[in-house]
Amino acid sequence: MSDWFLKGEPVEQIVVSDRGFQYGDGLFETIAIRNGQARLWQYHMDRLTRGCAVLGIKMPSEAELSSGLEQALRQSQALLAYCVAKIIVSAGTGVRGYGRKMVDSPTILFGIFPAYPPPVESYHEGLAITLCKTRLASSSPVAGLKTLNRLEQVLARSEFVDTGEFEGLTMDADDNIICGTMSNVFFVTNNVISTPSLDRCGVEGVMRRHVIETSKEQGIDTFVQPLHLSQLENIDEVFLSNSQFGVMPVRSCADMRWSVGHTTRRVMSILAENGITECR
Amino acid sequence: MSDWFLKGEPVEQIVVSDRGFQYGDGLFETIAIRNGQARLWQYHMDRLTRGCAVLGIKMPSEAELSSGLEQALRQSQALLAYCVAKIIVSAGTGVRGYGRKMVDSPTILFGIFPAYPPPVESYHEGLAITLCKTRLASSSPVAGLKTLNRLEQVLARSEFVDTGEFEGLTMDADDNIICGTMSNVFFVTNNVISTPSLDRCGVEGVMRRHVIETSKEQGIDTFVQPLHLSQLENIDEVFLSNSQFGVMPVRSCADMRWSVGHTTRRVMSILAENGITECR
Question: Which of A89, A134, A173, B153 could lock onto A155 through a cystine, CB 3.0 to 4.6 A?
Answer without folding.
Answer: A134
